[in-house]
Design goal:
Structural class of chain B: alpha/beta
Number of strands of chain A: 20
Shape of chain B: globular
Shape of chain A: flat
Number of helices of chain A: 27
Structural class of chain A: alpha+beta
Oligomer: heterodimer
Number of strands of chain B: 9
Largest sheet of chain A: 8 strands, antiparallel
Radius of gyration of chain B: 22 Å
Chain lengths: ~850, ~425
Amino acid sequence: MSFPRTLAWCFSGLLGFAAEAPPPLPPAPVSSFLAQNCVPCHQGAKAPLGLDFKQLTFDLSHPETLSRWTRIHDAVEKGSMPPRPLAADARQVFLRNLAAPVANFTATRARTQGRSILRRLNRYEYENTLRDLLGAPWLQLKDSLPEDGIAHRFNKSGEALDISHVQMARYLDTAEQALRDVFAAQQHPPSIRRYYARDQRRFHNRMRYSPFNTAPERAMIPIYGFEAQRDVLSDSVPISIAPYNAALRELEGFATPAGTFNGNDYSWDEFRAPVGGRYKIRLNAFSLWLGTVEGPFNNPNRKPWWRPSRQHTEKGRTNEPLSLYALQPGGEKRYLTTIDLSPEPTVHEVEVDLVAGDSITPDAARLVRTRPGWLGSPHASKEGMPGVAYRWMEVEGPAPPPSPLLLPKRKEQLRPTLAAFLARALRRPYTPAELDHSLSIAAQKSDLREATIAAYTSVLCSPAFLYLEEKPGPLDAYALAARLSYFLSNSAPDATLRALAANGQILQPATLRTQAARLLAQPQSQQFFNAFLDYWLDLRKLNDNTPDVILYPDYYIDDLLTESAEKQTRAYFAHLVTHNRPARELVQSNYTFLNFHLANHYKLPAVPGSALRQVELPPGNPRGGLLAQASILKLTANGTTTSPVLRGAWIMERILGQPAPPPPPGVGSVEPDTRGATTIREQLDKHRNNPGCASCHRHIDPPGFALESFDVLGGERTHYRSTEEGSPVWGIGKNGHEFTFKQGKPVDASGEFQGQPFANLAEFQSLLARQDRVLARNLVRQFLTYATGAPPAFHERAEVERILDAAQPSGYGVRTLLLEVVQSKLFLEK
Amino acid sequence: MPSHKFVSTNRRQFLRATGVAFALPLLGAAAEAPPRRFLGICNNLGLLGEHFFPAPGAAPTSSPYLQHLAPFQNDITTFANVWLPDVDGSHNSEVCFLTGAPHPSNGGFRNTISLDQYLAEHIGVETRFPSLTLGVNVMKSPRSLSWTGSGVMIPCEDSAAQLYRRLFLQGSAAEIERQIERLRLGQSIMDSVAGEAQYLSRNLASPDRARLDQYMTGVRELERRLVLAQAWEKKPKPAAPAPEPKDPGDPRFYMQKVRLMYDMARLAFATDSTRLITLFLDSVNSPAIEVEGTPITDGYHNLSHHGKNPSKLTQLAAIDHWHMKLLAELLGNLKSAQLLDHTIVLYGSNFGDANKHTTNDLPAILAGGGFRHGKHLTMPGERNYPLSNLYLSILHRFGIEAKAFSSAQSTFTGLELSGS
């Protein structure tokens, strides 16, 4: 470095030796204000927050510098800096003189280059777009492409959506494979076939003990009607009566007391989806009651517990959720749906999307999932234990596609077919050159089908398909239709939007608003909600941590709980949009969405079934809003412990839009101690006596304190769990192990938020709910970033306030906010 | 059967402005001196420090873990008090293990080129695969040790069987012809879309043009790789030196997978299919794994957050001991294949203490490859010493006299090159 590119310039005046142009300086009134009020503290290697004015230039084209000056402006505007009182109107003079050049810079940049940078489709958009374009909603493409880069928390910004040769190679492979799969599926005749449980190798293998399994908890019981078939179990008669009496086989089945998971999994192995497609699955299944006996059986080292006898079964006494997964040949599972089994044998029909090679794995999701060293099922007693039974599964499909992908039958059809494909794929009229290019690719193959696949592949790798073309200034009709569609459907414009782009009507504000409302009312809006929540709240990371086996055996490997928690958050947000609920309901409401498992988890009145439904909450219950949802509480923990610092920072940033500055370098985090000797709050209290720490942590931690009453999966707690100190707790976990954790020290969920004390989460929620404009402002910012790829710039703050003003009469209704965002200047321009 | 892919993600590296790509002068040419090789391994949950680090000044094989490497005392160097400067940010630090890019958890973080890819840009052209990026249990996760010069991730190959097929399985003449035809078609498609990008980039604002330039670079680079791939397709693959491995599908068989990948790395080196390999052991993504002799009751990641629980610590130690036994096996195999003297093996972690997510006091073992080994280098100073300096030393060992790499401005103090 030839010279310090710093503010020191305005103090030193040493200009002589510079070979480069001097770095830009802030306006003089700003510099003198800083010199007087800020520089005395903010200088040197130990400057607070690492903000050293002697090292800070005014080169706003540098993103970090721009963001620094913005934060400086905001801190002075808010009055949080400088800490000493100021002379009258000094603050205003400073703000005016700083705001003008910053706003001027961002406005000029927006005018000349656009607010956002040219970007390609992300993986979500690519998958949805191909599903729509190829008429194949079952395609699974996201994971074939490299993970997308993230900027401003979303996968929607040009600066982070890179392309390399690796990415290009994946596009080439993925597009070609998808086209082959779709053509194969289109040509596959649908069929119906029934697969009997008795015929499944992986079912009847589990009936017989083996060196790998001698435990009845992990075994299948052959049943006829509701009764155990001891003669089949002992192999004294054939496995099925089918060869002798086809009618009687309908009552044969297999029962099991366990869920399905790694190590004890079975699937309908006779069935493999021949091609990708939408299939109807009919499952004849029901819940059953299994007799138990007490005993360690053949292992004298085991403690006695109630174990399935396999000799006696009878009609079920419980309802049992059964989750279905697509089992891929590599062993990976993809969640499909959950049905509820009742004691009555019933045929349950569901529609599922499968890819070629998928098999079906059922999982009795509530039942025990034994892990080595287990004692037994938590549901077992002298009275018996619950189980599930399967008779058969019938598969119908694949369903013919609603609009099949075009394949020319004669050579002369090639040109019009490619033209039609291009017209749909490119989101704007194709150029003659683009058609010629794809024709010349097709010409390399003599086989018409191969020629079509090659040409389609080239279109799907082309920049016009992969990139969203936008020019600085107001968007043209095609770009606007695409932006709207990728915003609210996360996919390419549909036929209606394409038509409105072609005739330019989408540029009419009224049409735009109608179309936005239409998209929000369509089922595809779910794709928007999902993608938005995946990034805004990091819902895509819900399974990145798992509950600790020692501290949380009751949640450990409970997939149904995490799946339900995810559905709850998605359902709740969709409800806020669809019913235009006020923004304050992000943090507080008197309703939520529950199924039986969540109601139980939250200790709320029982709700039947595994499907989520809207439920009114008892007065004062804090489970309304996002903060006390199991998904959020899981995401902000690590499976073992919770940290008020992490949770607090998360709420400040994601919900209030007030991110905490990053921790100073070299300062370790305070780690909760699971041995139970001290609580995290006791540890943090020490830390807060240090004024250096306290200045930030008094803002960050309180929202986290409010959540201290909730454990790593959102269960309510009055005491921490500990591995060593405290009083023992008895129970059996989902993994069949006896609890070994202890009840440790009590939890304190009180705190003070922005000068207001709160005793618990409910009180904290009331404090937050009063700041509904702050909540709405953050949401608008998130929507704008997601929709346009760029957060509102400095000069656009007034437009954000205008959006908020317009939505204010609706109490900042979330749908109104969305529609106002769509009508805003920020959305309408590149 | 040849792979159904147009091109493997790790085909020949971009040939810088030479224009002689088609001639492949070095294709399979017998090298005069034994070629230098590099294998970088990162276990993203690290090793328990109290059992790993030898006492200052002690032999590099004097700790409970490192005693497994006793036969290789003079082939290894171990380090204490080292870190990758400013690589913080919890689990995200794993993607920086070979890049050293600072602050991976900060907004707007961009990774930089990894050591193996930097080397590949220089020597990758000499083998069928410029580099291999391997992983254990990394399926479906966006993480890798290998990053291109533009900070783009190269995904991990997780299947030993598929890797074996890529390395050794020769297709029939018709299959090869078909594959070449595929590659040629891919090449034409790239050529065609590059032309369109040129057209679209007219009148674009400069940040937008930079984005399309990146697309064009990706396209042209892939095109070149497809051309080179055709040339390699025509050249017979080396004879398979061992039968095809079977993938233990279940992530529980983590250790078995590690051993398989070690074997595959050795085979790839022995046949000169590549000279650069990274292996990412994604312990974080691993369930309760099977370890001979010790029942493991919990997922690997959960165990790492042991909270000082004795049962968890015992299980972790058992796992760590196996890591060291397998590494000893690998070194032994490389040695008996007479590869170790020219193969640099780096084993380490992005975490010093996975329980606390600290990224200082990293465990690291350097083996083979032409250094004066036999020392445990405890670096002086209150702050940790840059492990990235070791990366610069490795570059120099390859004859690449770079002045800086990643955060390194100098080579590693106290580590000398040896004669071989």
